[in-house]
Amino acid sequence: MPSYEKIFTNNKEWVQSKLNADADFFEKLAKDQNPEYLYIGCSDSRVPANEIMGLEPGDVFVHRNVANLVCSIDLNVMAVINYAVRHLEVKHVVVCGHYNCGGVKAAMQPKDLGILNPWLRNIRDVYRLHKEELNSITSEGDRYNRLVELNVQEQCINVIKLASVQQQFVKNGYPRVHGWVFDLKTGLLKDLNLDFEKILHDIQEIYNLTDSNWQLK
Ligand code: CO
């Protein structure tokens, strides 16, 4: 049997297990979605969004790309964030990176990688912004891990720069933006404990896109 056919067997078993737990599961699922979370993560096959968060279908709106980048000229991620924040009115936006990220590793090597160059440029820019800290780390492994974290931090800042996020926050007091890193070796999520309000405050001088002269107190 070609391996892909196994998927349909898996699918039927999954349907049955959901129905066993709740006979109306799919009827409810089809009605509407009201997720509390927007998750922006890496495409890496080892980091499945719902599974690592222990969340069910309907709980989380998901966007994934290579190295979890939030790039202002990427219409895909911009459309996802706008829809999740303005229409679904998610309470939390999470950028989740992971250690051993191939995208981040590739960006650490200064060489021509073809079509990946413009994408990885975003991570190389993170390296340049934090060059002093990164270059002071002698172990290459530790430097790699730290770049993964700093990349998450900078992508969170990119989320906070957006008009949709700032305006909804002024209106509702949410969403708040969180930076996490998934550790493949332990399965654990690490919260980088970024100070959302401080970042918003610090970027306001240049990136304030709220309607008024609103100032975070
Ligand atoms: Co990755």
Report what the structure shows.
This protein is α/β, with parallel strands linked by helices. The protein has one domain (34-200): Beta-carbonic Anhydrase, Chain A (3-Layer(aba) Sandwich), CATH 3.40.1050. The chain has helices spanning 5-21, 25-31, 49-53, 75-87, 102-108, 116-129, 131-135, 140-160, 163-172, 196-207; strands at 37-42, 60-65, 92-98, 176-182, 189-191. The protein has a five-stranded mixed β-sheet. The chain is globular, with a radius of gyration of 19 Å. It binds cobalt (II) ion. Cobalt (II) ion (CO) binds next to helix 5.
Question: What brief labels describe this structure?
Answer:
217 residues, alpha/beta, Beta-carbonic Anhydrase, Chain A, globular, binds cobalt (II) ion
Gross morphology: globular
The pLDDT mean sits at 95
Strand content: 5-15%
- Based on secondary structure, the structural category is alpha/beta
CATH superfamily: Carbonic anhydrase
The level of helicity is 40-55%
Task: Give the count of structural domains.
Answer: 1
The first-level CATH class name: Alpha Beta
**Rg computed from alpha carbons, rounded to a whole number of angstroms:** 19 Å
- How many individual β-strands? 5
Tally the helices.
Answer: 10
Q: Could you name the CATH topology? A: Beta-carbonic Anhydrase, Chain A
Which architecture does the CATH hierarchy give at level 2? 3-Layer(aba) Sandwich
SSE order, one letter for each helix or strand = HHEHEHEHHHHHEEH
